[in-house]
Amino acid sequence: MASASSFTKYRSWSTVSDDPNDVGRIYTPETPAQKKLKRTFSTWAFSLVILSLSVMFLVGLMVGYFLKESHEDESSFGKRRDKIDTHMLHSVHENIMYFISNDNVRKISRDLKLLKDARQTEYVKKELQTYGLDRVEVQEYDVVVTYPDPARPNELVVINSSGRVLKNVTLGKSKLTNKVEEIIKDGRGDVTRLSPNEVEGELVYGDYGRNMDLVRKNQSVSLQGKVLMIRQGEVSIKEKIRNGITFGVIGILIQNTEEEKMTDITDCLDTSQQYPFPVQMLSRNISEQLLMYYSTLNRNVSVRLKSNYVQITQSVKNVVASITGDLERDRFILIGASRSKLQVGTSYLLELARSFKDMQRGNGWTPWRSVKFYSWDHDGISDLGFSQYLKMQTMSTQSSAVAYIDLDLAQISNGSHWLHLAGSSVFSELVSSVVKEVPDPNNDNLVLENTWDGLLHNIKTETKIQQFGVPVFHASVSQTNNLTQTSDDDHHHMYSLAAARVASLVTLRLLDEELIPFNITFFTSNVYNAIMKTVLLIKESSSKILSTDIILELATELKNTGKTFSEYIPQLLKSKDGLAVRRINDAIMRLQRILSMPNKYRSHYSLLQESNTEGLSSSIKNLLPLATVTNDYSQIQCLLKSIGQVLHEAIFCLQSI
């Protein structure tokens, strides 16, 4: 019998037989040949491991590649991928300027004058497509516009206190009603004649219709339910109407001090906007007669004003073409011109688009930023196309538009030719540089710098795009009503060419310079000067009541911060931070928006009013006399608080870079 020590030698862990008589299962040893190795790692698992390692290796290669590319992109941000250096870029810009041809412009102008409406739109579209721009399309909108009815003239009746009619005037046709009549005759929209809008009330004279004028008048005579008569000037007609709405008047008569001929008020207003009461502009002659009744009858005069309007549903078509930028393609310069009767701006718009694309095709030049060429629809009365674009493209305009170049070059004048350069204050240094390169229209041996008056004028009528804080540049040329003589026509086109060349170089600098060429030091100094004028006005009238220490301190800090920002830019560009250029441009655009864009949370106007050289002081100047009389300085205090908020925001914008 086997001993216990030898028993383990024959122990087996193989499957036990079901046969109870099988004693060999314990005592029969397993030979080496009988042993079968168990597979612990299958072929499938091995393949999966190899595949996983390969995928990880490839992912690692891709991550490394993209990190390297990202690093290279950051370090090379600011280096043009079209391989055009600074010297070559200057030559490219000069070549584009000289590509602009008067012969092409004249041909386009002649062609457009022979076409009407839809055919003009199609002509402009085909021309832009021929040039081979990146994208060409027609943007169409349906707009309902209100105009005076040329078939039913407005009426004005003057009544004394006893109800007797003193004078009954049928207001004659104007340039506007003649244009409306032309629109209706040509069938350019669906016409709906509105019911007459008739109001009758006591006549009250409100001077210029400023807020201070109406407050003073309202202290002696309630303006609620009255018909207000006011003079032109001092503030915009739109502001006069807003003030009238605030005081509850039921109609406004505006004394036209500039022309004898009666014109309807919609010559001066956005015709797409509805007003709650009739507004009528009167000729100087009718105004003087009305004021005579007002004074001789001891201001006890009533008027009945009957206004007739039509609503026209029009189709507005804007043609847009673009060249996509290379490095900052989401940012764009907007160049626009209206398809109006003169057609000069549209002709140069097409010529600029052709010149830009020819240079891109021939030299491989691609602008740093994008550029959009817009041919605005214009019904001969108002800029419907431009207005509709701003309504539909508000977000992209606010966030991405660097500047707007207005190419409506012609201005009617009976005098000699002249070149007028106007724009937002940030363009001052840029324009001063550009005029050194543009030939003088009278002498090819001179440049514009020698004959230009050296002033970048304020834009007389605030362009709607400025409401979004977008700076505007406008070059215009005087144009006589009749260009029949060849010599006069040639002379005019030489001035128009000079204006177009200035606009093209300004556009190209905005497109191609890595830093948006706006002088921040000059910009913030302008704000400081506007604040200083405001502070001096307040101190002269009510230094003990109103404190200006805070806004003066903030204005000084903003001025110093602007100077420091400009000095810091070269150091930032020398760093290895590839996105430094982008961050600086972001700050420049944001600052422009903060200081120039009206904001309902701050005030109803901007700190830098583009159309007013007096800046903030003009607003304070209007409010102070009223506050002195009423001893109520709450409006001025509210304004000063708003100014402080804007200055805080502007300082933070520059410091955050």
From TrEMBL:
PANTHER family: N-ACETYLATED-ALPHA-LINKED ACIDIC DIPEPTIDASE, VACUOLAR PROTEIN SORTING-ASSOCIATED PROTEIN 70. It is an enzyme of class 3 (hydrolase). One of its GO terms (molecular function) is metallocarboxypeptidase activity. This is NAALAD. It comes from Mytilus coruscus. Its EC number is 3.4.17.21. Keywords: Carboxypeptidase, Hydrolase, Membrane, Protease, Transmembrane, Transmembrane helix. The chain crosses the membrane at residues 44-67. Gene3D superfamilies: Zn peptidases.
